Amino acid sequence: MAFDPGSTGFMLVATSLVMLMTPGLAFFYGGLVGRKNVLTIMMQSFVSLGWTTVLWVTFGFSMCFGNDIGGIIGGGTYLFMNNIGMNTPSLANPNIPMWVFVAYQMMFAVITPALITGAFADRVRFKAYMIFLTAWLIFVYFPLVHMVWGGGIFAQWGVKDFAGGIVVHASAGFAALASVFYVGKRRYIHKGPHSIPLVALGTALLWFGWYGFNAGSEFNVDQITTIAFLNTDTAASFAAVTWLILAVIFEKKPKVLGMLTGAVAGLATITPAAGYVSVQAAMVIGIVASVACYFAVWFKNKKGWDDTLDVWGVHGVGGFTGILLLGLFASTAINPNGDNGLLYGNPHFFLVEFGAVALASIYAFAFTYGMLWLIDKITPVRVSPEEEKEGLDEKEFGETAYEI
Description:
Blueprint: H1 5-32, H2 38-65, E1 68-69, E2 73-74, H3 98-116, H4 126-149, H5 153-157, H6 165-183, H7 196-215, H8 223-251, H9 256-270, H10 279-303, H11 311-329, H12 347-378, H13 385-390, H14 392-397
Antiparallel strand pairs: 1-2
Helix pairs in contact: 1-2, 1-3, 1-7, 2-3, 2-4, 3-4, 3-6, 4-6, 4-12, 6-11, 6-12, 7-8, 7-9, 8-9, 8-10, 9-10, 9-11, 10-11, 11-12
């Protein structure tokens, strides 16, 4: 079978961009923590590149895209990459090989659980994290992928999620909140981000990779690809500037870290809507994203929740908000394969989107809390006070990022 070289080549580039986001996240989180925990938080991202790949090619891809079982999970169609040959067409676009689809979706699986690690930075054992990573992929991420993108129950309801507002950001964000409640506050809080330049580098890599994350989710090179690309940058930019303005109003100074956080909030929020809405809607989505996430972080701080790196406030609230805004602004004039939102006379689509993101968020929260409780019965989730004080890099890995 002859595949389209243009679309295939583009998807290979998009896959590479999404892969780059996980090291980008490692730098982003690494700069935000204290000097004694840099390697630990970065390792939690990098190890997902390896371990998630092992799970994905053995059974994860099949759980996501195999034969439907009850609308919840995929069956054994593609276990150990069986039933996929050199000429097997992709499930999303028959003009590209299945192998490209496998690789692209794998990169999403790699980064999603890594997002959660920012919530429990500085205080969770690596052994417990590895069990967490495995179980969360199997029982949360893989089923959600099947339900939304693999022909499962949400897809049957008519739910749309262009690049992962439900599957990636809302699920990871509300899992992060459950982690915060279960693990508890840090005993020793560092003075602040040890390297804002490192955070800036991570933001740049994430922003760059996000073009592959969103534009690549069209699985083709066409008009939708181009508007998804532009919407991604537009929302991120409007959100970054809005966060700067909010910082000046409420904190009396523009904040570098605030602008970087705002950009990521805009990126997370536009993700589910990128290929379904107009550029004008993307401008509004960027502004709303920044306002919603800014005040979510404020609320979290007021309540004293130790979501160390604001995973819930940025990704959870951003992903949830993005799905609601998709339900509001979606238009078949932009994407005939999408749907019309509330503003275009279709309240049913808005309600379906709200119902799906609410159910996914509640499930991710509840399962994560219960799973951490169970892991604690097997091996302690949290490090000892002495280990936390000395830093996890030295205690967990016997290495340090800097000479101290």
